[in-house]
Amino acid sequence: MAGKWRLTIDEGFCASHQLRNYNGKCEHLHGHNFGVSVEVEGSELDPAVEILVDFGELKRLAREAVDALDHAHLNDLPAFAERNPSSENIARHLYQGIREKLAALAPQARLVSVSVSEKGTSRATYLED
């Protein structure tokens, strides 16, 4: 049975949003310090260095993805013009932005999931089969 490695890095950003059609407090303009976790896995290490992905490079990819959201009003961004900027949709947006860049950086690694939290106690995770 072959083993796997799974790496997780954490990032974050600050932004405001409002959830359209929510019918509650979150329909009003408000902000969060969003937490973001990115998880990758693979069963082969880079043979020269014996790592799956350099943590610094993985953090750089995540930082590039969240920089476009940092200190923005998410509803004003093209990615959320029609979709609500919910934690679920933010996680999907970040996943899709990181996936291709990771494939180019480290073909031996696969993006497993991206999680977004608005508070330390709740998180939405996006993953694809």
TrEMBL record:
GO terms for biological process: tRNA queuosine(34) biosynthetic process. GO terms for molecular function: 6-carboxytetrahydropterin synthase activity; metal ion binding. Zn(2+) binds at H17, H30, H32. Pathway: Purine metabolism; 7-cyano-7-deazaguanine biosynthesis. Pfam families: PTPS (PF01242). Its cofactor is Zn(2+). Keywords: Lyase, Metal-binding, Queuosine biosynthesis, Zinc. The keyword Zinc applies. Its EC number is 4.-.-.-. It is an enzyme of class 4 (lyase). InterPro entries: 6-PTP_synth/QueD, 6-PTP_synth/QueD_sf. Binds 1 zinc ion per subunit. The active site is at C26, H71, E118. SUPFAM superfamilies: Tetrahydrobiopterin biosynthesis enzymes-like. It catalyses: 7,8-dihydroneopterin 3'-triphosphate + H2O = 6-carboxy-5,6,7,8-tetrahydropterin + triphosphate + acetaldehyde + 2 H(+). Belongs to the PTPS family. QueD subfamily. This is 6-carboxy-5,6,7,8-tetrahydropterin synthase. It comes from Humidesulfovibrio mexicanus.
